[in-house]
Design a protein that fits this description.
about 100 residues, alpha+beta, Elongation Factor Tu (Ef-tu), domain 3, seven-stranded antiparallel sheet, DUF1905 domain-containing protein, AF2212/PG0164-like_sf, DUF1905
Amino acid sequence: MEAIDFESAIIEWRGPAPFLFAAIPDEHVGALRHAAMTASYGWGVVPVARVGATQFTTSLFPRDGGYLLAIKLAVQRAEGVGPGDRVAVSLRVGRDGKC
């Protein structure tokens, strides 16, 4: 799968830690859902993502027909971002690629 690049505002959602997420824009949900069929551990995984200059491994969380991308605490600190900040995201579904 090609990398998906977008900008998104960081939101807080009461759920599993780290509590901060970037919502995947609607125009990418179909492609992610399709790619996750072969790369998923049963519910969809994004094993490589990048926010700004920080590359990290994380997961997608299904939410209201779309996905939320978990932004780890280490990434929040490295990028100096928090709720309401807009971030540039690059992600790829799969177990081996890099963004």
